[in-house]
UniProtKB/TrEMBL annotation:
Catalytic EC class: lyase
Residue stretches making up the Alpha-carbonic anhydrase domain: 1-63
Lyase among keywords: yes
Keywords: Lyase
Highest taxon, organism lineage: Eukaryota
Protein name: Putative carbonic anhydrase
SUPFAM superfamilies cross-referenced by the UniProt entry: Carbonic anhydrase
GO molecular function, one term: carbonate dehydratase activity
Amino acid sequence: MNQDMKSLDRNYLPTNATLVNHQYSIGVHFEGKVGDININGMNYSLKQLHWHAPAEHRAHGRL
C-alpha cells in the first residue's frame, strides 16, 4: 500500500452510451458528461472506454 496516496474521489454520472465494434477494438461512446475521478488532487475526466486485442502488455509472461 502506498502511504503517500491521499483520497480517491469518484464523481460519475448516469448517461446514455453506445457500444461500438471497430473490428480491431470495442469502444464505448458516451452521449453526455460522464464525470471524473480525483486522485491526489489531480482531476481526470472520463471521455471514452476502449479495449483491443492483441494486448499491448504482458501479464505473467503472456499477452
